[in-house]
């Protein structure tokens, strides 16, 4: 028994720190996604990761720090996935399409990441919500570039500059809200979500730059 | 002096409870909007309201309860304002238009309400976020009815039933996100926001029910 424990201790020691940290973060994301921040226990994270609590504290800190590490890693992965999905040498609508596809593919494949980022980090609040809002800001900047570039192609650069950031904020809010809805309605294939949004939003935007404007009628 | 205090005490007593509660809630919304939940102090709320702290505790409870009362009152006002803005005997797009106008008018006129509901309640988290999510759910239901009704007018009832709730979630997310963006960009008149959204979203939706579908091209 003692010899076993010693041997497993030696084996544990031999794992590089990066590998250990990955084990811990994978377990933490899973446990936080399932229980939320407040109800998640360090005992369960330790058990799921197969890493002792003292080692978790020493590598990544207590629960609050650990949660921050989770949010940062998952934010980074999400941004990377979306950026990798975007092809820069295609027209703006196709860039948006690829970006949305990559976003919903990420949500489908990393449901726990999205749950932690969108449901838990936002509702726990404080600095965690700040991290997610920074991520949202980067997404809005990315989309605003596409909107302005599409507007400029149509000779409406100035108008697109004026409304671009607001429209991008609306679009990102729509994409997020649809992803959140999808968590509870996962029978819809993830590819369909991107095409709903393109149809809902891009067609309208295209009409707009083509000069086809919706106006309220008398009523 | 003592006589004055006594007289003002009597005057205070004579105010009906509902009036006192309104004074307290008005002050609380203003203070919470300015400082956020955690930094807001009961002293400042008491001072702004001109109501003693013991009276606040006795009428509306301690800080947590008071914040819940604020969220409920502001949610209720927002819903009422939007519902009052919607005319039921006009086509779905005009209903949405009036609803969005009423929503952005409310945000413009009750900036503090929206700040408390959207920025603070969500980021403080816990049961507060739950209240706001319930409000969002009601807004999604309201918009889903419009989407389904527009789809049915065009003979696409079944398709609208399938996608209506998701599209409504996207639309509500877009409206919220744009209102949030507007808090930091209030030089845009509030009437413009509703028309941006109509153009961005409703035209796209209309194209969709008219059979004009966006499809990815080869690239």
TrEMBL record, chains A, B:
Coiled coil: none annotated. Keywords: DNA-binding, Transcription, Transcription regulation. InterPro entries: DesT_TetR_C (IPR054129), Homeodomain-like_sf (IPR009057), HTH-type_TetR-like_transc_reg (IPR050109), HTH_TetR (IPR001647), Tet_transcr_reg_TetR-rel_C_sf (IPR036271). Residues 41-60 bind DNA. Residues 18-78 form the HTH tetR-type domain. PROSITE patterns: HTH_TETR_2. Pfam families: TetR_C_46 (PF21943), TetR_N (PF00440). PANTHER family: HTH-TYPE TRANSCRIPTIONAL REGULATOR RUTR (PTHR30055), POSSIBLE TRANSCRIPTIONAL REGULATORY PROTEIN (PROBABLY TETR-FAMILY) (PTHR30055:SF158). This is TetR/AcrR family transcriptional regulator.
């Amino acid at each position: 028994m003692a010899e076993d424990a010693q041997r497993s201790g030696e084996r544990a020691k031999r794992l590089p720190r990066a590998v250990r940290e990955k084990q811990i973060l994978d377990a933490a994301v899973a446990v936080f996604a399932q229980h939320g921040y407040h109800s998640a226990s360090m005992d369960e994270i330790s058990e799921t990761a197969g890493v002792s609590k003292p080692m978790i504290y020493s590598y990544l800190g207590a629960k609050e720090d650990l949660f921050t590490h989770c949010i940062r890693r998952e934010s980074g992965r999400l941004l990377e996935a979306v950026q990798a999905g975007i092809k820069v040498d295609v027209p703006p609508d196709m860039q948006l399409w690829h970006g949305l596809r990559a976003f919903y593919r990420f949500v489908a494949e990393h449901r726990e990441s999205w749950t932690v980022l969108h449901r838990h980090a936002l509702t726990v609040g404080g600095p965690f919500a700040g991290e997610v809002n920074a991520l949202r800001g980067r997404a809005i900047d990315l989309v605003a570039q596409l909107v302005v570039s599409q507007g400029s192609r149509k000779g409406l650069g100035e108008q697109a500059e004026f409304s671009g950031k607001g429209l991008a904020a609306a679009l990102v809010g729509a994409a997020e809200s649809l992803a959140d809805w999808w968590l509870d309605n996962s029978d819809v294939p993830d590819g369909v979500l991107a095409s709903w949004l393109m149809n809902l939003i891009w067609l309208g935007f295209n009409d707009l730059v083509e000069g086809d404007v919706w106006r309220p009628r008398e009523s």
